[in-house]
Amino acid sequence: MLEICDGLEALRGVMSLREIASFIERTARWVSPETFKLLPLWFPEHGRRTLFYKKNWSTPQLNKNRKTGLSIHKSEGNVHANKALTLALGLRSKRRPNWSCCHIWGIDDASYQLSNAIVMDRRFFSCVANMVLLPTPLKAFTDTMPDVKAMLRICARNLYDWPCTDPEFVATNTLLDKWTDWDSFPQSWPRTRHEKLPLGVVELSPTIRICAQKRLAAIRRDLEHAGTHYPREEVKAALAYWNIEL
Q1: Which of 27, 240, 54 is nearest to 139 (CA)?
Q2: In a designed cystine with 46, which of 80, 86, 143, 193 is the match (CB 3.0 to 4.6 A)?
Q3: What is the domain partition of the chain in residue ranges?
Q4: What percent of the chain has pLDDT above 90?
């Protein structure tokens, strides 16, 4: 039977880590630190796999299987993380074809067999310091290459002065401090806190500020008036983590 090497090893044989990082450096779009400070968390009511409701959180939103006829409760994939990043960059979903939302902090599992507890956490799912916008083909690098993930986390931690505080990442943050392959690390990315801004940072604009204000007003409104399925206590806890005042 024909044997073949690991795909990542084959890639490394023809492309260096520095080259891969350069593609990401030159095309990534980052939320500005000022936008992050203005509104760190955009959809505290949602996390990966949380359930969807309609009619203002009063009725379950169901998906019907065409083959079986069975209906199941629709759950969150990446919809509101995508929406948060899009708004925080001053974009519209229809005007960003072939771009993908990439979570920076998450459970590292190239086999996709483990539950990603980090993005299931409402505190981190729609946090704009936990995301970067990449051309869709490049997202495969961030999903599967540990070195690429580490470099993104170093950049994000220094750009936003925030590392993920989930217990899963206490050890990871220590490992990031021991990074030594600076020849591969993108030149425009900060190596230390507040050193510089990477390429692709989108400045806080009046449009983005208005979107953030509207989003916060919607959260306040939902806490007061949304239906019985609205996760009020979870939302309050997520907002408290970020010191977001209502």
Answers
A1: 27
A2: 80
A3: 7-241
A4: 73
